[in-house]
Amino acid sequence: MLAKFERLGYRKVITTPHIMSEVYNNTPEIILKGLEEVRAEVKHHGLKIEIEAAAEYYFDDYLVNLVKKREVLTFGDQYVLVEFSFHTPPVYDDILFFEMQMARYKPVLAHFERYPYFHGSTEKAKEYRDKGAQIQVNINSLTGNYGPEVRKQAEKLIDQNLVDFIGSDCHRMQHLLTMEENLNKPYIAKLSQLALKNQSLG
Rounded to 5 degrees, what angle do the CA atoms 191, 111, 71 make? Predict the structure, then answer.
């Protein structure tokens, strides 16, 4: 997959394995050990692409505790990728944002277009950004890979300039191939007109 990213013109990949209490029991130590193993393979295969690692944290009490203890993996300027439940809106999100600000972390809300309870409106995205959060959208949402409603919501966020980061969410090669096949889609082209913070990540 990294070789494919390189052929597509990417210079760096920041991988974000899931961390979710009792489901994805990753730790910074496990993730960073894996990072070194992958870097060794990258070197072995003569690839030039850079790879870094952070994590995608599920929003729950476990994350709040990690934030309080300053035990989260960040990327860029102290950004932390946070994932909400797909089934129910977040509760006590203000507490999480407060704790993150106290720890000088900056929340990035993962694949914001995929939460069905926010579909049809961008008010929550505006509200969260006013509170200091960043909005991330998956590039394959614009291909229709997650369905028409998700695609429409992603387009709304782009039209209203409410996207801070774009991500690939590539879990396997097929996701990369789908992305490659749809690079000429109008809204994927439109991403280049946004002031995305991906550029600040090097």
Answer: 120
Domain of 118, in residue numbers: 111-195
> How many C-beta atoms surround the C-beta of residue 66 within 10 A?
21
Tally the domains of the chain.
Answer: 1
Show the low-confidence residues of the chain (pLDDT under 70): none
Instruction: Give the model's pLDDT for residue 41.
Output: 96
pLDDT tens-place string over residues 83-142: 999 999 998 899 999 999 999 999 999 999 999 999 999 999 999 999 999 999 999 999
Please answer whether residues 123 and 135 qualify as being in contact, where contact means their C-beta atoms are separated by less than 8 angstroms: no
Contact predicate 59/83, CB 8 Å = yes
* The one-letter amino acid at 107: P
pTM summary value: 0.94
Strand 50-53 vs strand 56-58: parallel, antiparallel, or unpaired?
A: unpaired
Q: Determine, yes or no, domain membership for 139.
A: yes
Q: Comparing C-alpha atoms, which of 186, 200, 94, 193 is closest to residue 142?
A: 186
